[in-house]
Amino acid sequence: MDGALALGAELDGRIVNITQAGANFEIPAPVDMDDLLQNDRAADVSAIVSRLREDGGIGSVEVHEAAFAPLVTRPRKIICVGFNYQAHAAETGTPIPKAPPIFSKFANGLNHHDGDIELPTMVDKEFDYETELVIVFGRKCKNVSKENALSVVAGYAVGNDFSARGLQNITTQFTARKMSDGFAPLGPWLVTRDRVPEPNNLRLQTWVNGEIRQDGNTSEMIFDCREIIRYVAGIMTIEPCDILFTGTPPGVIWGQKVPRDERQWLKAGDKVVSAIEGLGELAIHLR
């Protein structure tokens, strides 16, 4: 509202501003996704949606008219898993991990559907995509069993674990290659857990300027979503709005079997579209 963040929802193929609708109906409404998840306000959203459907004539906009924001803006943690597909590990010459290799991104990396990434060309020239299934947590938890792991999930989204490969290959650490501004786009939707019966059976794809680059399935993960959640929640307390990137399938530029100086790294002007079955398409523009 007036340029501020708001909680939106897709109803009947159009976008409704839930925050504004709540104000119109004088019903308490979450101001954004963080408010919804961190303060457990699902009942407020349900009440607003019921009122919208009762009244008819829902005030809404077409999807292409909506301005998207990052799904969450105040996560305590952005957790990432590397080399979680055997074919991706193989294409990069990386041994199959014995446990999920964990690293982090930071809130400065949060980006959104149809957003821009300003490439940090003063420190790198080798930029790469990684389409990934992203888990957004909805409950505080620790020491969750594998059997109950999905119960702490709020929903799923498309993510792009954008990477600077030059920074990656000059040290043994992952963080520098992953921490630039805008390097953690996710969206456009948070698809609630009940609408994704099995997160480890979803097709993932990446296009660069309309050319298909990745085409895999989450069933190919080495450590599935349940195991990753169990592992991470055994290390630390998970909180609502925490984000988990679960790894990328093969097809990244870094894995191409040609000399590095002959690879066609991403550059300003490119458009990267990441898609996951049932979760939508996430577009990013490089500047």
UniProtKB/TrEMBL annotation:
GO MF annotations in UniProt: hydrolase activity; isomerase activity; metal ion binding
Essential cofactor(s): Mg(2+)
Pfam family name, one: FAA_hydrolase
InterPro entries reported in the protein's UniProt record: FAH, Fumarylacetoacetase-like_C, Fumarylacetoacetase_C_sf
GO biological process, alphabetically ordered: carboxylic acid metabolic process
All copies of domain Fumarylacetoacetase-like C-terminal, residue ranges: 77-284
Keywords: Hydrolase, Metal-binding
Record-stated family: Belongs to the FAH family.
Protein name: Fumarylacetoacetate hydrolase family protein
Species whose genome carries this gene: Paraburkholderia madseniana
